[in-house]
Structures are given as C-alpha cells and as structure tokens.
Amino acid sequence: MRRLRPLRSALTAAVTAVAALGLAATTAAPAQAATPLPAHVFAPYFEAWTGESPAALSAQSGAKHLTMAFLQTAAKGSCTAYWNGDTGTPVAASSFGADIKTIQSRGGDVIPSFGGYTADTTGTEIADSCTDVNQIAAVYQKVITTYDVTRLDMDIEVDSLDNTAGIDRRNKAIKVLQDWAAANGRKIEVSYTLPTTTRGLAASGLNVLKNAVANGARVDVVNLMTFDYYDNAAHDMAADTKTAAQGLYDQLAKLYPAKTPAQLWGSVGITEMIGVDDFGPAETLSLANARTVYDWAVSKGVNTLSFWALQRDNGGCPGGAAADNCSGIQQNTWDFSHVFAPFTSGTTAPADDFSVAVTPAAATVAAGASTTATVSTAVTAGTAKPVNLTVSGLPAGVTASLSPASVTAGGSSTLTVAATAAAVSGTYQIVVNGASASAGHAAVLTLTVTGGTTACTAAPWVTSSVYTGGQQVAHKGHNWKAKWWTTGEEPGTTGQWGVWQDLGAC
Fold first, then answer.
1. Where would one find coiled-coil regions in this protein (predicted)?
2. Which CATH superfamily is domain 6-343 in?
C-alpha cells in the first residue's frame, strides 16, 4: 500500500527441531487467548504514522477491525521491526498497546501489516532486510504475542516482488511461525496483500504464492489491491474489482486444487482505494461502486473487505488528487466505512452496552495550566454495568486524571488535563476509553496546548544525510520529525502528509 509523497515519487514439510527451538527460545509463548477473526471481516487500513488514535477512529467510523500500516525495519540490513521504521514506536505495549486492547474489548481487533510501498522500495521490508529466517519468524511471533492478534498481513509490492531471496525467506519464516503456533495451540492466519491487474495477479505476485506452496507456508487470504492500474484505460472500478477477484479465484483454484469453491472465495480479500487513487480521476471508486462491491463480495463469500485508508474517508478535498487525509470526492465523513462495516460477521453485540462522550469535545490549555471536561456515559442496551475509564494519547508534558475513574453506566466523571511548562505547543487527540465486562467504547478530546516549548534542540538538516523514521532535525526555524526513511527531501517542502512532520517553530 502506498504512502503519498511529493509528485508521487514515493508512491505498493516440517521445520527442523533446531529451528523450532530457536524460535521458542526468543519469546515465551502464552496460552491461546486471542479470538479468531470473523469468517467475513471489514478491516480498513489505518495509517499508523499520523499520531492519531486507532481506537478513537475505530469508534468514530464504526470500523471494529483495522489493518495497521506498517511494520518495517529502521534501516536496510536490520532484523528489528518498528512501526513505520520509527525507532520511537517499537513492537511493544507502549506502541498502540492500549488502543489495541480497547478495540479488542469492543469485539474488534487489528491486523498488523508488514511492508508497504516505502519499505518495499527501500529494502526495509523485514524479509528483504534480514537474512536470518529464524529472526524474521521471531519478529512475527513477537508481534502476535505482544498484541495478542490472530492475523498478520504481508504487503508486498514493487521491488519486494522481484526479490526472490526475500520472498523465499519470508515464506520460510511464515512456515516456522505456523509450526510454532501449532505446537502452542495458537490459531494464527497470514494474508498476502498484492497488486493486481484487472484480470488477476501478475506473474510476480503469483510467484510469491507459488513459493509459499513450495515452502509449505499456508496463505489464508490473498488480498488484492484493486486500484492503481496505471494502464491509461477507462475504468469502472467496481467491474474491475469483480474481474480481478475472479481472476485470482481461477489462479488459486490451480494452486490449491483440493479446495472447494467456497474455500477458494473464502481465501480472497479485496482492498479498494476510496475516491481518487494515485493514478488520478480516471480511477475513481465512487460510493455507488463501493455498494456494488459490497453486495458482490457478500454474494461470493469473500473473506476480507478493506480500503486505503481510514483517514481518507471524508470529503475534505473534493475535486482534488489522491491524498492521505481525504478521498478527493464529494462525500460525508465515514461514508465508505458505513457502506462496508456490515460485511463483518460472526460477532455478537453485547447484551449490556453503553456509550461514552466528552464535553466539550475540544479544549485549549496553556502550558503550566489545566482544563476540565465532563465524561458522560449512557446505557444503550441491557442494564447498567460498571465502566472503568482510562486516558491514552497524552503527549509528553501533559497529564490527565479522572474523578471518579469508574462509574456505573449512566454516570459521569470529571476529566482534568494539565500541561506542564515542558509541554510542546500543538494540537493532540486525547482518548478517553471506557471498558465494562462485556463492551468497550472511546471518545476523543481534541486538546490544543499553547505557550509551550518550541526550542530548536535538534541538529540542523543536511541534504546529503539519510534519516529514518523518528529522527528529528532543525530547519528554517522549525523542528521536524521524519515519519519514515528519507534523504534529500527538504523539510517544509513535502507537504502536510509528506515525510517531514512539523513539530513547531523554534
């Protein structure tokens, strides 16, 4: 899947006992606890580098399951994965752990995705970067056990599709992982997200699957990116999704001749790019197209529906080009999510449920001061049950307290947010999480900090230097943070959704 950059220049048999023991020694294997994904699931991509809360956007959009993009190494040759290659967001409970638990408490889950266009073009996709199969498998295991998830996604595009050594290592590592899971009674799934033609996988994508078969690696879902065809043709995006998925079905039937038609369709995933895709207006998925795709996917028994990306599901830039934060068409916020959300099946609504809200929804606080808001809850189904309240998403220098920290549904609490003198000026999303024995919900307070620190503490930007995700520089009176690997891209010229995040004047 693609992250947008200026001018689109950066826009896709048993294992030996020794190997099994090597993997098991890396991380202790807890008992199976995670709940498998539904047989049919809607899981749009969440752009994990934006600083937003996945739990909050999940609650706001109604998308109970998310595909989290992306995991990759910070530099080519490394065997350590980070979210978006940012060393500040390692695979640890401190990185999205609270959000993922909140989503799981609501009956949803996340699908961590490895790779993506940037990783696949810079050698930082984990199997391209790391040459040790067991270390790759250990990374996969760490993600599963850290976040207690049941599916991993491999987003393999462009250069990674031609890296035969990386392809072979990846599939061998998947087999090691699957043997570990079987030995520990743990159910896991693996999906491959691959680019497609309008008639099915190109030879490079098909070769990835053939190698998986050769290595004994089970691929549970093949997820087609039904966009960015770049063929200068006229497109009915819904019709092209159908022909692409039918082509994939035919290819899978040859790869897995023992599978029934229902099993084959149950191995198909579809990921759209909502609105205008990277090619331009000639490849636009409309809301009418989305409804057509939804109905067709239901009729075929497709496994997964997704789109790129949740943060684009709004009409903030009608008539514009593809962007990471809007669809480029006229629409209401969350229109595409509302079309696809009913696709998820196999979940049960809690008998006792509640809602949570924050009033006001936005507040401003000066450094050294505090502000308050009211957190209210209400019974939406069944009877009132105790609700535990917590706060996540707090930036450095900002603290929060709740009084009381637990209420009975229907009750309220006072949220106090305080900013120290060391707080950095800016606008942040503070997430208030509510959890009962059977349900979980979240609300968001948009907090603006004023009068905080803005000092240029980072080293000056150097045009010839290579920067990885999380590194900071000073340039033209501002502090900047790299979201992913970059070199030669000047801070301040890449746009709001480019590689450099503006941390403020200094």
1. none
2. Glycosidases (3.20.20.80)
